[in-house]
Design brief:
There is one protein chain. This protein has about 425 residues and is of the alpha/beta class. The protein has 15 helices and 14 strands. The protein has helices spanning about 15-25, 30-40, 55-70, 90-100, 120-125, 135-145, 160-165, 170-180, 195-205, 235-245, 260-270, 285-295, 305-310, 330-335, 355-365, and strands at about 45-50, 80-85, 110, 130-135, 155-160, 185-190, 210, 225-230, 250-255, 275-280, 300-305, 320, 345-350, 370-375. The strands form 2 sheets. It has a 7-stranded parallel beta sheet, with helices on both faces. Helix 5 (about 120-125) links the parallel strand 3 (about 110) and strand 4 (about 130-135). The relative contact order is 0.13. The structure holds adenosine monophosphate (AMP).
Length: about 425
């Protein structure tokens, strides 16, 4: 994926940023970086179709820092560049990137999100910040409290915009946009470009450069996908069998519901497989601990709901398992985007019961691929047809987006 012909020093980045890249050991820009960095430095708007794992974060962070280092420093309570993300985890990760790339620059950056005390955030923002990473709900709270002002705002980034819409943030986003100066640069990143995203883009972006690093709604090529048909009741047993049989050391498991995530993590733990669940009902501390353990290897199996898993940056994750299929087909693409990064082949395995056949069809329609089905010996399904599972939305069709997502991070999704 990396173009060995091009170096970072060809893209218009100054020495402090090039030094930070050398510190990180990055030599060549990824395709999205190669295209986005010079355009953003020139001040263009951007509409990029890119999933996590493409290097998109550096693709917007580096040129933004390059622009920010030349302008006027922020006055009290002012923000010069704003990155909005759908989840706390993603906000924290983006901010980690900002700090790493900006380490040789005298710029101030901060991150704010809900679920933690607001007062320390208020204090940190008072002096003004060059770059703020935020989730929409907490940002609006801070603005309403008079802590933040946007008169000096030069650049707005919406990261994982599709997910922000899925999570019901559209009104918050529109309200925020109305608070910003009209003259500004806008960068929009989204894994998929559905009609609502296009509509948002039309109102937001001015003659944007369009970049697409993976074909629209197509799953990444380096991911080997397989479906193991099985009975609903035997899924967790099959999961544990697969982990042991393959001796997998780091497995991300997706569960549609928080309850299901807990149940499976507890069951695996009881059987001696180190497992942890992350979802919206877990405290921020518990989520961070679970993720840390997973990255360091003390947690072998991380069971996550779609929303909690969003934006988790774990490189070269070898195995992603769908304990159940997502009720929104696009989520399948997001889920398996966790594996097979940076040239490594990943494995995305879906355990699919007869009740989920419509969900499977919706995924196959979206990705344009018929997934390979393979029985696991001893776990062949005994139930071959069954009424579709109830997704909690009455007679909603499986490929339609629910207005409000189920099984994510609780009813307080809009306050992250
Ligand atoms: P992202 O798509 O922004 O989540 O980035 C995916 C991962 O790739 C992150 O861990 C980055 O630190 C890493 N990364 C980003 N750009 C490069 C690059 N040019 N060379 C090597 N690694 C990179």
């Amino acid at each position: 994926m990396i173009n060995a012909q091009v170096g970072f020093d060809d893209l218009g980045l100054g020495e402090p940023l090039l030094k930070a890249l050398r510190d990180k050991g990055y030599v060549h820009p990824s395709p999205i970086q190669e295209q986005a960095i010079p355009a953003v430095i020139r001040g263009r708007d951007l509409m990029a179709a890119a999933q996590t794992g493409t290097g998109k974060t550096a693709g917007f962070t580096l040129p933004m820092l390059e622009r920010l280092r030349h302008g006027r420093r922020p006055a009290r309570g002012q923000v010069r560049a704003l990155v909005l993300t759908p989840t706390r985890e993603l906000a924290a990760q983006v901010h980690e990137n900002v700090r790493a790339y900006g380490r040789h620059l005298p710029l101030r950056s901060e991150v704010v999100f809900g679920g933690v005390k607001i007062n320390p955030q208020i204090e940190r923002l008072q002096k003004g910040v060059d770059l703020l990473v935020a989730t929409p709900g907490r940002l609006l709270d801070l603005h309403q409290q008079g802590v933040l002002r946007f008169d000096q705002l030069e650049c707005l980034v919406l990261d994982e915009a599709d997910r922000m819409l899925d999570m019901g943030f559209i009104h918050d986003i529109r309200r925020l946009i109305r608070l910003l100066p009209e003259q500004r640069q806008n960068l929009l990143f989204s894994a998929t470009f559905s009609p609502p995203i296009r509509k948002l883009a039309t109102g937001l972006l001015h003659q944007p450069l369009q970049i697409q690093v993976t074909p629209e709604n197509q799953t990444a090529r380096s991911v080997e996908q397989v479906v193991h048909p099985c009975d609903m009741k035997r899924k967790s047993e099959l999961l544990s069998h697969l982990i042991r049989d393959g001796d997998w050391r780091q497995v991300l498991v997706f569960s549609r519901t928080k309850h299901g995530a807990n149940r499976v993590a507890e069951k695996l733990s009881r059987e001696g497989l180190e497992a942890a669940a992350i979802h919206g009902n877990k405290s921020q501390g518990a989520r961070t601990r679970a993720l840390q353990g997973f990255k360091q290897g003390s947690v072998r199996v991380l069971v996550a709901t779609d929303i909690a898993a969003r934006g988790i940056d774990i490189q070269q994750l070898p195995h992603v398992i769908n304990l159940d299929l997502p009720n929104v087909a696009e989520d399948y693409v997001h889920r398996i985007g966790r594996t097979g990064r940076a040239g490594e082949t990943g494995h995305a395995i879906s355990l699919v019961a007869a009740e989920e056949s419509l969900l499977l069809k919706a995924i196959e329609r979206l990705t344009g691929e018929v997934l390979r089905k393979e029985d696991v010996k001893g776990f062949e399904p005994t139930i071959l047809t069954a009424p579709p599972i109830d997704l909690g939305g009455g007679r909603r069709r499986s490929n339609q987006r629910p207005r409000r997502r189920q099984g994510g991070s609780s009813g307080r999704q809009r306050r992250h």
